[in-house]
Write a structure and sequence with these properties.
The complex is a heterodimer. By secondary structure, chain A is an alpha/beta fold. Chain A has a single domain, classed as Aldolase class I (TIM Barrel, Alpha-Beta Barrel), CATH 3.20.20.70. Chain A is built from twelve helices and nine strands. A nine-stranded parallel beta sheet of chain A has the order 5-4-3-2-1-9-8-7-6. In chain A, helix 4 runs parallel beside helix 6 and helix 11 packs antiparallel against helix 12. Chain A is globular and about 45 Å long. By secondary structure, chain B is of the alpha/beta class. Chain B folds into two domains: 159 residues, Rossmann fold; 220 residues, Rossmann fold (3-Layer(aba) Sandwich), CATH 3.40.50.1100. Helices cover 44% and strands 19% of the residues of chain B. In chain B, strands 3, 4, 9, 10, 11, 14 and 15 form a seven-stranded mixed beta sheet that branches. A four-stranded parallel beta sheet of chain B has the order 7-6-5-8, sandwiched between helices. Chain B has a two-stranded antiparallel sheet with strand order 1-2. The longest helix of chain B is centred in the last third of the chain and has 21 residues. Chain B is globular and about 55 Å long. The chains are: A alpha/beta, B alpha/beta. Chains A and B meet through helix 3, helix 5 and strand 6 of A and helix 1, helix 8 and strand 12 of B.
């Protein structure tokens, strides 16, 4: 299923899409595949695979730690592609979230080709803005990969319009000025940002990320956004678990709670 | 050929530079650029900057003919004495400029990253002078090897935050400063310490430290009646080097040499030579040369000099390298320390270990230039900082620290 179809289906069901994030290879390649499949089975509509990177400037402590663990275990870019293939093979829609340098090093066109071959439908680029993305836009067009750029509460209306025009699939709205990580409350800046995106393009689905950690927050964000993006809270299920089985159990429970949340949007 | 009008409007030096940052930072970078453009042409701002440099920082620094060092290396060596500036390095020029910009933008708080602590101390100094709140991010490894600078920053009223993730060095301090900035851009200016990072930082920092080269060029004329044959500087992030190179770029007869930290030797993999031992990539907001593995993961750098221990380099250096206008070579820890000792013994000047890389490089190119020119070459070396902060490192390196019996108060009977 393409990302557009996932959002269309959710819209028809009068709910939001739940996008769950997990770093590739955390804590091992096989474990991360099991985590992602469990997340999908328990209610994550889309699996966002994060490619571990040595210098993740958009990420808070939880994703940093998980990425460090994956890198210390020796995960490679080709492992991330293998993980995507395994997860997409179960029928889960998969998007990749990646900092730019690993893609530039791999070769932009070659990466788009291999990402498509692995079964991913889209790619989120937290440190690549459309201004610098000519090569990526050409490569993603050629290989049919959806492009998700970020918009932020600090973005001007002109930049929102320019950025949304370069997105395909959905646009990622960062709910607050800050890095990833669960917060105790949902940012008040988020609904306004979503409105501004809708003003620029009423048809482009908007996913909201940064800060969502439980079902109530998911329901709150689902009240105004097309997609709810959850990372750190899910990763912590695995990070804090005493063993692998407990981690998977907690992941399933949180995914189910979040899935329930996006089905009960609070306006 | 080199045109001084770079970077272009989008901040590119050829294919290098640009902005590889989260969208959340774009507005702050745009605001910074607009503030800088207006400050650049504002005579009031320029006069204030100039006045602080002259009356507070002790600029222009001397251009000193180091006769005994010259005799030892076989070239006429002219030292640009940035070590004599207030706070002991070229960095004071950049921090005064940026702190004034922060004031102009109405931002009451500055954050900075620091490796050796020099930029942190300089930032804390400017913040104290201009009444700004100052938070300095410093890798935990560096806070340990540069404990005195941590104390200096605290004395000046800054908050020092040890960074405990990643390799716990300069690159991680930079990541943490960027994370702070994403969350605090409304009230905070990121006082970036080198001519690297996203546009417009490479241009702003270059311009603020560019007086080094302007002064050196005029002083060399005055001292020798002509331009030097070569200009030498050490290159980590590359601010002191771009500061002294920039005015000489149009002087095609003047060779420009950047000396990177070769650590144990580039061939060992334990070094910080991003240009000579790295490859093109994207790090900390710009495309430039970086130390990276086959997957584009940053490789930790190694150097005896904390100030050069960084796996990237300013994008203008990447471009000067590719165009051939400047030549970059690695200098090992051992070569740098030999030059460090030579300057101490011949001139009575203890250089920063960073600057000792430039001295070693100058000594290396001297015979080459002599042969090429058929006469004694004149080399301007940027003595970018003083070595007070390095006394412990150098003392340990040379084995000249007396063993001290440590008596813990209260424990002796």
């Amino acid at each position: 299923m393409s990302i557009a179809e996932v959002f269309a289906k959710a819209r028809a069901e009068n709910r939001s899409v739940l996008i769950g994030c997990m770093p590739a290879g955390f804590p091992t390649v096989e474990d991360s595949i099991a985590s992602m499949i469990a997340m999908h089975e328990a209610g994550c509509d889309v699996i966002e695979v994060e490619l571990p990177y040595s210098d993740p400037v958009m990420d808070g402590p939880v994703i940093q730690r998980a990425s460090d663990i994956a890198l210390a275990a020796g995960v490679r870019t080709r492992d991330t592609l293998r993980i995507i293939e395994a997860v997409a093979g179960t029928g889960a829609p998969v998007v990749l979230m990646t900092y730019w340098n690993p893609i530039e090093k791999y070769g932009v066109n070659a990466f788009a080709r291999d990402l498509a071959a692995a079964g991913a439908t889209g790619m989120i680029t937290p440190d690549l803005i459309p201004d610098e993305a000519a090569e990526w836009i050409a490569a993603s067009d050629e290989h049919g990969i959806d492009r998700t750029f970020l918009v932020s509460p600090s973005s001007t209306d002109e930049r929102i319009a320019m950025t949304v025009a370069q997105c395909r699939g959905f646009v990622y709205a960062t709910a607050l000025m800050g890095v990833t990580g669960a917060r105790t409350s949902v940012s008040s800046q988020a609904p306004e940002l979503v409105d501004r995106v809708r003003h620029a393009d009423p048809h482009m689905p908007v996913g909201v990320g940064l800060g969502v950690g439980n079902g109530a927050q998911a329901a709150q964000v689902a009240g105004f956004a097309d997609g709810v993006i959850v990372g750190s809270a899910l990763i912590r299920c695995v990070l804090d678990a005493p063993d692998r089985a407990t981690g998977i159990t907690r992941l399933r429970a949180l995914s189910a709670e979040l899935a329930e949340g996006v089905r009960n949007p609070r306006n | 050929m080199t045109a001084p009008s770079l970077p272009d409007l989008a901040g590119h030096f050829g294919r290098y530079g640009g902005r590889f940052v989260p969208e959340a930072l774009v507005r702050a970078l745009d605001e910074l650029e607009a503030a800088y453009r207006s400050a650049k042409t504002d005579p009031v701002f320029q006069a204030e900057f100039e006045s602080l440099l002259v009356n507070y920082a002790g600029v222009p620094s001397l251009l000193y003919r180091a006769e005994r060092f010259s005799a030892a290396v076989g070239a006429e060596i002219l030292l640009k004495r940035e070590d004599l500036n207030h706070t002991g390095a070229h960095k004071v020029r950049n921090v005064l400029g940026q702190a004034l910009l922060a004031k102009r933008m109405g931002k009451p708080r500055v954050i900075a990253e620091t490796g050796a602590g020099q930029h942190g101390v300089a930032s804390a100094t400017a913040a104290a002078l201009l009444d700004l709140e100052c938070v300095v991010y410093m890798g935990e490894t560096d806070t340990e090897r540069q404990a005195l600078n941590v104390a200096r920053m605290r004395m000046l009223g800054a908050t020092v935050v040890p960074v405990t993730n990643g390799s716990r060095t300069l690159k991680d301090a930079l990541n943490e400063a960027l994370r702070d900035w994403v969350a605090s851009v409304d009230t905070t200016h990121y006082l970036l310490g080198t001519a690297a990072g996203p546009h417009p930082f490479p241009e702003i920092v270059r311009d603020f430290v560019g007086g080094i080269g302007v002064e050196a060029r005029a002083q060399c004329f005055e001292l020798t009646g002509r331009l030097p044959d070569a200009v030498a500087a050490c290159v980590g992030g590359g601010s002191n080097a771009i500061g002294i190179f920039h005015a000489f770029v149009p002087d095609e007869a003047v060779q420009l040499y950047g000396f990177e930290a070769g650590g144990d030797g580039v061939e060992t993999g334990r070094h910080a030579a991003s240009i000579t031992g790295g490859s093109s990539g994207v790090l900390h907001g710009a495309r430039t040369y970086v130390l990276q593995d086959d997957d584009g993961q940053t490789i930790e750098s190694h150097s005896i000099s904390a100030g050069l221990d960084y796996p990237g380099v300013g994008p203008e250096h990447a471009w000067l390298h590719d165009t051939g206008r400047a030549t970059y070579e690695p200098v090992t820890d051992a070569e740098a320390m030999a030059a460090f000792q030579l300057l101490c013994r011949t001139e009575g000047i203890i250089p920063a270990i960073e600057s000792a890389h430039a001295l070693a490089g100058a000594a290396r190119i001297a015979p080459r230039l002599r042969e090429e020119l058929g006469r004694t070459p004149t080399i301007v070396v940027n003595l970018s900082g003083r070595g007070d902060k390095d006394v412990h490192t150098a003392g340990a390196y040379f084995g000249i620290l007396d063993p001290v019996e440590t008596i813990v108060p209260g424990e002796q009977e």
